[in-house]
Amino acid sequence: MMKPNWRGLRAAVVCLAIALPIVVPVLAAGQSCQSSGELDDAMGNSIVAAGRRYYAMAEKGDIASLRQDSIPSLAADFSAVEQRIKEHQQDLSGAQATVKSSFLLDASGPAPVPHAEFLCGVFGKNGQTANSAAFYLDNLPAGKYAVVVLEAASAQGKTTVGEMLEQSGGGWKLGNLFVVPQTTAGHDSQWFAARAREYKAKGEMHDAWWFYLEARNLVSAMPFMYTLATDKLYDEWHNSQPPDLPADGKTADLAAGTATYKLTTVFPVAVGNDLDLIVKYQSSNASNNSLAYQDNVSLIRAFVAKYPEVREAFAAIVARAVDSSGQDYGTELAMKDIK
Fold first, then answer.
1. Residue 24: pLDDT above 50?
2. Are 108 and 143 a contacting pair, CB within 8 Å?
3. What's the mean per-residue pLDDT of the chain?
4. Of 181, 208, 227, which residue is a domain's last?
5. Which pTM value belongs to this model?
6. Domain boundary, last residue among 159, 181, 203
7. CA-atom Rg of the chain in angstroms
8. 294, CA 20 to 30 Å: which among 24, 97, 159, 242?
């Protein structure tokens, strides 16, 4: 089954320390996967123990220890993992974690794998089953890897923690870590999927697409991991992305008076129980607050004029001017204030 490129669908998932962009998978020789029930006790226990150890560090907010126990490429740039943990520290602090699944991915060989595909567990005639998973990674260095998915339960709700580990010596180093609350703005994946279908039925395809993205993000432990839940959503929505939105690294133009803004990504984000829409675009004025503010307000007004359906779905629009160095400047306007 063809798989999509999910790159850029969520701001918090932008960096893979041991895998580059996700693409349509190509089967390569020498790749195998074993799920927890297929592993011998020693291997299975070592993977789970490592997963629990790294979860305990994340739960305590122990960034220094996590970085110290990471593979070199992740330790060199730990900012994405650090941001995820800090952003969701309230969800993790004091939360009891249960290991939901674990896998051993074997990519042993003499060279990196250009397009690695791992099919784990039992697949049926229609593809994935409740206990299966698939992983698609590009330019994966030769070696053995493990995936541990945990569910943390606290008074804040349930949160999924996905860990990618790399075998190093006799143990496991952290390769990446993702934190995904199972609800956002008070709603779960099924709620967002239902709203997406409602918007689609009304012909509001942009709102439908953004709500579908949120539904998909809430059931995805990691951006390179596919399950029965993610595949069902993909099968329903894979040809539904509006062509006038930025995607796969390509910008989209938005005209505002005499200016044309190049949008780089558009995605929803929860603010309390509200849902806002973030619009990022290329700018040479991000370091000039006055000019960036003017651009942001102009862009927001033009965006809502072009896509009036967003008034129904979102509480506010946030424009973020981003320059070539990565510096950005953001402006939020509540929907009621956008004339």
1. no
2. yes
3. 90
4. 181
5. 0.83
6. 181
7. 21
8. 242
